[in-house]
Specification:
This protein has 331 residues and is an alpha+beta fold. The chain is built from 5 helices and 21 strands. It folds into 2 domains: 181 residues, Lipoprotein localisation LolA/LolB/LppX (outer membrane lipoprotein receptor (LolB), chain A, Clam), CATH 2.50.20.10; 106 residues, Phosphorylase Kinase, domain 1. The strands form 3 sheets. Strands 7-8-9-10-11-1-2-3-4-5-6-12 form a 12-stranded mixed β-sheet. Strands 13-15-16-17-20-19-18 form a 7-stranded antiparallel β-sheet, covered by helices on one side. A two-stranded antiparallel sheet has the order 14-21. Keywords: Periplasm, Signal.
Amino acid sequence: MISRKIFPLFSLFLLLVVSLQTAVAQELSRSTQSALGWLKKMAEAPRRHNYSGTFVYYADGHIETSRIVHKAGPTGEYEKIEVLDGLPRIVFRNNDEMQCYLPESKKIYTEKRWFRKFFPDILPLPLDNVDENYSVKEIGRERIADHECQVLSLTPRDSLRYGHKFWIDTATGVPVKVAVIDGNQIIEQFAFAQLEIDGDIPFSQLKPNQSLISGEWETTKLLTSILGEGELPWQVKSFPAGFRKLIEMKRNLTEKPVLVDHIAVSDGLATVSVFIEPISKDAPSPVPGFFTSRGAINIYVRTLNDNKITTVGEVPLETIKLIGDSVVKKD
């Protein structure tokens, strides 16, 4: 038995141990300023540098190869991404104006990009709240595609989001490889197999060639109407910790006969979209439940009265459901 004299000392010792453990845990969870600096450099670099190369996307046993050419200059950004596997798809971009060519069906879809999320330009600016939701650490250097890279890990502070790992070119900040991680498992990955940065890129490489645009093509303009705060008749009543609303829109999506209400949500890194559309009497009834498209993207569908609510995002199913179930119609 601990004597009365020893007990206060023993209690004080336990208190010091617990305090020390708490301080160490807090220190371990705090992102370093140099790591956050690398993250900021990575967010800015794809918009400021010329680059061209071939990258590979991998998820769920699926591999897809694409070729990219990107030019940055006084008039903004120009880009061409060509998918080299499966059905041909070619995307041309001038700043936020995009054109997607589908040569097999002779269709062109044009759209104004409302959010940046195409490898290697995958981080938003400004980088809000990232440190609140993820612990960012430098974990060494590796050579990827003949580029010396700084490796960063982003460990989520809860179960509501996935982890990430970035390999960043040390000279320019351009990401060379990106992995999305669920626990210890890589569920999605982009990686350059070949990459040249800051080379000269003529504008001829960034325009559709004559063979591509010959013949009759059907052009569809996908419109996005940005709305003011609270203009939609819908709201996400309760956000999961760390998430906030980015924007409200009305959009005409591919193959949709009516405009779709769209609410975009983010935690500063991951993005979730909520689409609300009336259920057509002539269409088959939607099937509520969970669906996984590929990699980090999960889908959750529910119905509310005569509306279909589809929640899509690069977050775990738990988070998708929390957001989707919080969507209500305003009184």
